[in-house]
Design goal:
The complex is a heterodimer of chains A (about 110) and B (about 110). With about 110 residues, chain A is mainly β. Chain A contains no helices and eleven strands. In chain A, strands 2, 4, 5, 6, 9, 10 and 11 form a seven-stranded mixed β-sheet that branches.
Chain lengths: ~110, ~110
């Protein structure tokens, strides 16, 4: 989606390794979200942030960490504590928490 | 947990026909949103209906909301092959603005 960029498109993780997924936006939106999607399933919320320097856990935060040091960036780290990390990860943004969300094109994470 | 449940899980129709997808949910909501996802891509927002609205239109899309039955439907009229995608409903929860709960989606296939 224009204005929101996720990278990389594909990522491979070795056992015991932490990996970081990037999400950048240039639309000056306050709210940012991370979701996980498993095959044939809907999205599950990992973490979300409504303002800079603040974020909250979603439904499945265990094994993940985030930071929101800048308004335009909301990186997600998949730690070695996440035992089943293989999934499609989607970042979303919204003007504020009452508005529809706009999604990036996702990062597909696999285990080596 | 997945609050929204879509029905049917898969729908196959011919071009020009109408497609109807249903969504049921369990707890109180402040809004319900419909999203579309093409294979391997991010989600695209289609329409948002607030809890005090009963019907909303956008182009070939018509959404209804029945809060007494905790259900919503998405109607796509005069479908096209390009409408082939997965469609998800997402509910905005009572006091947690911005936190969406997604259903598992309906896979729509429109045959030319």
């Amino acid at each position: 989606d224009g204005g929101i960029t996720q990278s990389p498109k594909y990522l491979f993780r070795k056992e015991g390794q932490n990996v970081t997924l990037s999400c950048e936006q240039n639309l000056n939106h306050d709210a940012m979200y991370w979701y996980r999607q498993d095959p044939g399933q809907g999205l599950r919320l990992i973490y979300y942030s409504q303002i800079v320097n603040d974020f909250q856990k979603g439904d499945i935060a265990e094994g993940y960490s985030v930071s929101r040091e800048k308004k335009e960036s909301f990186p997600l780290t998949v730690t070695s504590a996440q035992k089943n990390p293989t999934a499609f990860y989607l970042c979303a943004i919204s003007r504020d928490s009452l508005q529809p969300q706009h999604f990036g094109d996702g990062t597909r994470l696999s285990i080596l | 947990s997945q609050q929204g449940e879509e029905d049917p899980q898969a729908l196959s129709i011919q071009e020009g026909e109408n497609a109807t997808m249903n969504c049921s949910y369990k707890t109180s909501i402040n809004n319900l949103q419909w999203y579309r996802q093409n294979s391997g891509r991010g989600l695209v927002h289609l329409i948002l209906i607030r809890s005090n609205e009963r019907e909303k239109h956008s182009g070939r899309l018509r959404v209804t909301l029945d809060t007494s039955k905790k259900s919503s439907s998405l109607l796509i009229t005069a479908s096209r092959a390009a409408d082939t995608a997965s469609y998800f409903c997402a509910t905005g929860r009572g006091t947690s603005y911005g936190k969406l709960t997604f259903g598992q989606g309906t896979i729509l296939t429109v045959h030319p």
